[in-house]
Each structure stands twice: as structure tokens, then as C-alpha cells.
């Protein structure tokens, strides 16, 4: 992208455009009517806007009293606009200085060379470059390249006019450019010189410095940089940048704005909220890293939006592991506000400190996120090459990669339509991507670099300690439904196609773990929810349930509806709200097509109508002593311990449920680590944990057995 060969090609394209541009330029006067000459003039202006007089700067206006026409035939004019000397100081005329390109040949040439600059109007006559003439400085290499072309492209008249531009820089900008060079060589900058370093077409990086342990960068391409006044009428720099976004079907260019507040001191360039990639101390290492991240971002976007066949089911989204900062977008009321500078939501989100940390499994699904949160849709402009970047030759930024500059995408019926993605597009792709946290049950943004493949536990289901016949039946039914579905359907299309399990029994008997290990063995997402999470308002509950069923169908997830009795309690004549809840869930269960595990400790309270919606009902009982010993050993095996099989057998005699066994071993592990990180858990640690861990205060018999065991 930025090798010298490509840079030369970019220059050649610009220079080749000059003759065509010159032919299209509307010329009011013949080029020969303009003198190859430069004038520095002062223009006095009345308060109502009319020109009072124009004269050479430094000469006596009383002696000249010349009008505008005197300087209308020169190729280049520096115009200093001031209030008419007869008006008072509050006349309303602002003092400004601007360089005006009047010659049609020079206007055509400069318009071709500065075609990617949007700060100035290249179509007006004359072309006006306001002080401090940053656009002229940014074009200096291109002007020199044009001067070096053969005379059949650049005639003597144009060559002379281009040299006027170079002479202007030498005579009027030398001190500014010398200061700029001195500061830049030492990695410093002042606010007055800020616009000179943000060159249209150059790469900049936006660092997020609050993400430990390392900074995270978002790369973008400068479109424009101009000095404006903020809401407090203080000067600031407004930088418009372009990056590569994804609109759920293809990649394209997204524009965003950044503001650098004014400052009076000398600053390090790398301390700015956004700065040129050229000034990054490890730019040649950072650039390929940005590209690699872009490759991963692209893969995640394409995987999540491409239909993946799984038996008779179509799966969207990518099930991944994540460890890192998390920008939570809980709902419209608590989500991030829209950026005040008009930037896209994703770009604005990255600039905010993340809400929390997240470690666990997520579903990366940009299309699903936009569907539920349409305010976050980026307005993507479709083009072939992504953000335009014409990098300065001095940058010499190279991408060290064995991959080709454009990589082919796998075509898909419903996936992204892009066939190729350029290096520049990859480099400017966002560092964050939207997804759904399965542990927090909410949408948010995740660092692309924090996403990894899931390390599945292949022995999870085998370690489940429930009746073997029940265990085999559950696994077969779920696997068959997920992989192949069923030809059987209701008389009404789309009705009764789901698979619903009801798991009932005392706490800690393995109901929740059954659903968890089934999902683990099938390598699919487990969506956990409880009745209490959905709120109390009927409308909100119904919307929440519909969203949940849509998500599990989209992601081919297994739904674990824990403590389902909240919604399934028997209807009565005096509780209309509960009756409405039951009716809603009955209707949704009938038309959903996923796999549901409903758990309850209070089967007797269920409304009878639910039994016709449930396909398999399994009763769970507390494990016997031998199974409890296996549970003790299985959970303890995750830690460094020295407990013997006989000691596990002894622990199995305690009538504790699986959940309490897990809690006790968690406390024992903490007690062990208090002795040192390399200490091994012993039976003594477990006994100490048993004595202080919380049990059921109403079950005196069990607590007495625990006390006896620990004494």
C-alpha cells in the first residue's frame, strides 16, 4: 500500500489527471492574458462588504488609489483584507490573509494535484488558500514532481507559474516551515502548527490510553483538518477521518470527526488524542499488527453474517471466548450517548472508558447487534478501495506480510458481497466489534485482540453424575434435534418444532449442570436466564422473551430457563398479571424451534397447560454416597490437591448436594492459596472450609453430620 512503487503510482495518477483537468476547466480569459507574476496586495473593505481600494502592500494607499482591476491579470496574488481606514475598529470586517490562484492554467494544475483535499474549493475562480497555507505545503512534493515532467505536458507558462508557488513558500513560509521542521524532528508541535502535520490522505492513529496493559490504536485516514471555534468560542482543530466499516453486508468507508482542543504549550505529538502514524515510535511494527487485526475483524464479520448450515438449522454469529475490557450497551436508557461531534456510534464508543471487564464466552454478531440496536449502524459509503490514502513518500511505511495485498473472500448466498479487501481497508478496520455476552446477558463491544477460540471440555458430559439412562437419552435427543431436526411438524406451519425439557428436583441435584454439559458436549452457546431477569411489566417481559427466543434460534443456542416456576405457576382467578405471564410463555413455547431446558424445584405449582408443551420430563434426586465421592473428586481435580481416594469416599458420606460441594471446594482452594501459591489442597483444608461455609440453617441433621466429620 505504501511502498515507494505504489507511492510513485499515486503521483503518476495525479499528474496524469492534469491534462484532462485542464481541458475541463472553464476559462473566462485566455491563459495568455495572465502575467506570470506574483503580487502582495492589501484590500480595504467597507463594513457592508464592498471593496474600497486595493494597493500593493507597503506602498502609500493615498498615492496609489488603485482599484481591483490592476491586479486581476497576475497568476498569483497574496491578498490582505483589512477594514477601510475610514471605518471604526468595530466595523465587522475581519482581518484575513489569503493566497489566490488566478491563472486558469495554474488553477487547473493545482486542482489536479490537490484533488483529494476538501478544505478548499478547487472549482472556484480564483482558488483561495487561506493563511497559514497548509494546503500549499502539503502539495509541495507534488508540485516538484510536476515540474520534473517533460515539456510536452508542462509548458513554459505553467512551469513558470508553478515556480511562483515555490517562491511564495520560500519568501513567505520559510520561518513557519523551519519551525515546523525543528519541532517535528524532536517529536513536538504547537497548536499553531497542528494543521501542517495532519495531511489529507495520511494515516493517523487514535490511541485509547485507558486500556491496560497496553495502548490500543484505531487507524484512520485524514480527509481534512481545519481550525474552528468550539462551543466556548475557543480555537480547536477539527479533523475528519475515514475508516473501514461494515454494514452487515459489505465493507465500505465511514467518516468520523475528531477534535483537538487548543493549547498554548509545546506538546509531544504522541500525547495528542490523535496523531500521524509517521510519529509513532514503533510504526513499522504497528502497521502489520493493525493489518493482522483487520484480517481477524473481517473474518469475524464474515463468519457472523454468513449462513452456516447445521443439519436443518441455519446458524449465524460466532461463538468465541473473550478476556478484556467490555463496553456494555445494556439498553437505550443505559447505553452510550451519541457523540456530540457527529461521529458514528462505534467510533464514539471506542473513545469512552469501558464499563467493565468481561471474561467468558460471547457471540460475535454485528448484524444481530444492529438489528436490536439500529442507532449503532454506521453509514457506510461503498467503494472499491476503501478510504483514499496518498501517503507522503517520506513515510516509507511497509507492510511486512506474506499474504497478498488483496485476499479473496468466500462467496456466500447471504454473507458479505466483497470479493477483495485491500491492505488499507484492513489497517483501518475498527479495534472493537459488537457481540453478546452470555455471562452478562447483554450486548456490548469487545476488543478484537481479546477474542479467541473456545477451549472445549470434551469430558464435561461424561463427568455429569446423573442416572446413566437419563444421561444417554438427553444427549441423543438434543444431538438429533440440533443436527438433523425432525420431519414431524404441527398442522400449523412453524408450530411445535422445538424440543423442551423439564428438569425438576431438589437444589444441587444436577439440573443446571445437565444443560451446561449438554451445551459443552455439542459445542454450542448456552443462553442462561431466569424469570427474575425479565422484569415485572408484562409488555417488557414479552419483549424480553421474544428477543431471547430469536437469539437462540439465530445462534443455535441451548436455552436454560432456570427457576422457571416464576412464570409457570398455576393460574388463578384473582391474579390476572400472573395469568397473562403464563399465557405469554405458553404461546411462545408453542412457536419456538430451539432447545429449551426448564428447571424448577416446585413441580407441584406448575400450571397444567405446560405439560402439553413439554416433550421430556426428568426428575432429579440427590446423588448417593458413591456418586457424591465422584463429584468431590471431579471438582477437586481442577485444583492442585493431595486428597486420597479413601478421603474422597469419606467426603461422599456427607449428604451434601453438588452446589454445596462446589462452594466448599472453592473456599478450601482459597484457604490453600493463603499458605502459598504452590501449596496443595488437603483434607484438612476441606474440613476447615466445611466448618465455615454456609449451609442450610434449617437442616440441623446435615449440619450435625458435618460437625462430626470435621471434629
UniProtKB/TrEMBL annotation:
Domain of life: Eukaryota
InterPro entries attached to this UniProt entry: AAA+_ATPase, ATPase_AAA_core, DUF7025, P-loop_NTPase
Disordered: annotated segments: 369-422
Domain spans labelled AAA+ ATPase: 497-624
Sequence ranges of Basic and acidic residues compositional bias: 374-385
GO molecular function: ATP binding; ATP hydrolysis activity
Skewed-composition ranges (Polar residues): 413-422
PANTHER family, per the entry: AAA+ ATPASE DOMAIN-CONTAINING PROTEIN (PTHR46411:SF2), FAMILY ATPASE, PUTATIVE-RELATED (PTHR46411)
Protein name: AAA+ ATPase domain-containing protein
Amino acid at each position: 500500500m505504501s511502498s515507494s512503487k505504489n507511492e510513485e503510482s499515486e503521483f503518476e495518477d495525479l499528474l496524469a489527471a492534469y491534462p484532462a483537468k485542464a481541458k475541463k476547466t472553464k476559462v473566462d480569459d485566455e491563459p495568455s492574458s495572465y502575467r506570470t507574476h506574483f503580487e502582495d496586495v492589501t484590500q480595504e473593505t467597507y463594513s457592508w462588504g464592498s471593496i474600497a481600494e486595493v494597493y500593493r502592500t507597503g506602498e502609500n494607499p493615498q498615492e496609489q488609489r488603485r482599484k481591483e482591476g490592476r491586479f486581476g491579470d497576475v497568476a498569483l496574488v497574496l491578498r490582505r483584507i483589512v477594514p477601510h481606514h475610514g471605518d471604526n475598529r468595530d466595523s465587522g470586517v475581519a482581518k484575513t490573509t489569503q493566497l489566490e490562484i488566478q491563472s486558469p492554467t495554474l488553477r487547473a494544475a493545482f486542482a489536479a494535484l490537490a484533488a483529494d483535499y476538501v478544505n478548499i474549493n478547487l472549482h472556484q475562480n480564483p482558488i483561495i488558500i487561506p493563511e497559514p497555507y497548509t494546503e500549499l505545503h502539503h502539495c509541495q512534493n507534488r508540485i516538484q514532481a510536476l515540474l520534473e515532467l517533460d515539456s510536452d505536458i508542462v509548458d513554459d507558462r505553467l512551469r513558470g507559474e508553478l515556480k511562483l508557488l515555490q517562491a511564495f513558500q520560500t519568501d513567505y513560509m520559510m520561518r513557519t516551515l523551519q519551525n515546523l521542521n525543528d519541532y517535528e524532528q524532536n517529536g513536538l508541535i504547537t497548536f499553531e502548527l497542528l494543521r501542517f502535520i495532519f495531511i489529507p490522505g495520511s494515516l493517523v492513529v487514535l490511541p485509547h490510553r485507558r486500556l491496560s496493559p497496553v495502548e490500543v490504536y484505531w487507524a484512520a485516514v485524514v480527509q481534512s483538518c481545519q481550525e474552528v471555534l468550539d462551543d466556548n468560542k475557543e480555537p480547536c482543530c477539527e479533523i475528519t477521518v475515514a475508516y473501514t466499516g461494515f454494514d452487515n453486508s459489505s465493507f465500505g468507508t465511514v467518516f468520523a470527526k475528531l477534535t483537538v482542543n487548543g493549547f498554548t504549550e509545546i506538546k509531544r505529538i504522541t500525547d495528542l488524542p490523535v496523531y500521524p502514524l509517521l510519529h509513532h515510535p514503533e510504526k513499522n511494527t504497528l502497521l502489520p499488527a493493525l493489518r493482522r487485526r483487520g484480517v481477524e475483524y473481517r473474518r469475524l464479520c464474515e463468519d457472523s453474517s454468513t449462513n452456516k448450515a447445521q443439519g436443518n438449522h441455519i446458524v449465524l454469529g460466532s461463538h468465541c471466548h473473550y478476556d478484556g475490557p467490555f463496553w456494555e450497551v445494556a439498553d437505550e436508557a443505559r447505553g452510550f450517548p451519541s457523540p456530540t461531534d457527529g461521529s458514528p456510534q462505534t467510533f464514539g464508543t471506542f473513545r469512552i472508558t469501558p464499563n467493565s471487564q468481561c471474561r467468558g464466552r460471547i457471540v460475535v454478531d454485528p448484524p444481530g447487534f444492529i438489528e436490536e440496536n439500529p442507532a449503532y449502524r454506521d453509514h457506510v459509503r461503498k467503494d472499491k478501495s476503501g478510504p483514499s490514502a496518498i501517503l507522503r513518500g517520506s513515510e516509507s511505511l511497509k507492510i511486512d506480510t506474506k499474504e497478498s495485498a488483496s485476499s479473496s473472500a468466500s462467496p456466500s448466498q447471504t454473507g458479505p458481497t466483497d470479493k477483495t479487501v485491500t491492505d488499507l481497508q484492513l489497517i483501518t478496520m475498527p479495534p472493537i466489534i459488537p457481540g453478546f455476552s452470555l455471562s452478562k446477558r447483554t450486548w456490548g463491544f469487545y476488543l478484537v485482540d481479546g477474542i479467541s477460540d473456545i477451549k472445549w471440555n470434551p469430558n464435561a458430559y461424561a463427568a455429569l453424575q446423573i442416572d446413566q439412562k437419563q444421561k444417554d437419552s438427553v444427549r441423543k435427543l438434543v444431538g438429533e434435534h440440533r443436527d438433523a431436526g425432525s420431519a414431524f411438524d404441527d398442522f400449523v406451519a412453524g408450530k411445535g418444532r422445538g424440543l423442551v425439557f423439564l428438569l425438576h428436583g431438589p437444589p444441587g441435584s444436577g439440573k443446571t449442570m445437565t444443560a451446561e454439559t449438554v451445551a459443552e458436549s455439542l459445542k454450542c452457546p448456552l443462553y442462561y436466564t431466569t424469570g427474575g431477569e425479565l422484569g415485572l411489566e408484562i409488555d417488557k417481559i414479552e419483549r424480553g422473551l421474544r428477543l431471547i427466543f430469536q437469539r437462540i434460534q439465530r445462534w443455535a443456542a441451548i436455552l436454560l430457563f432456570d427457576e422457571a416456576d416464576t412464570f409457570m405457576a398455576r393460574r388463578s382467578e384473582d391474579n390476572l398479571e400472573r395469568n397473562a405471564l403464563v399465557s405469554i410463555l405458553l404461546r411462545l413455547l408453542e412457536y419456538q424451534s430451539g432447545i429449551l431446558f426448564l428447571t424448577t424445584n416446585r413441580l407441584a405449582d406448575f400450571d397444567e397447560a405446560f405439560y402439553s408443551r413439554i416433550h421430556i420430563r426428568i426428575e432429579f434426586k440427590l446423588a448417593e454416597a458413591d456418586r457424591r465421592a465422584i463429584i468431590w473428586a471431579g471438582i477437586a481435580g481442577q485444583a492442585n490437591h493431595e486428597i486420597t481416594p479413601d478421603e474422597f469416599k469419606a467426603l461422599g458420606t456427607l449428604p451434601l448436594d453438588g452446589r454445596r460441594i462446589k462452594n466448599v471446594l472453592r473456599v478450601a482452594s482459597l484457604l490453600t492459596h493463603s499458605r502459598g501459591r504452590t501449596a496443595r489442597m488437603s483434607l484438612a483444608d476441606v474440613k476447615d472450609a466445611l466448618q465455615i461455609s454456609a449451609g442450610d440453617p434449617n437442616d440441623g441433621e446435615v449440619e450435625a453430620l458435618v460437625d462430626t466429620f470435621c471434629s
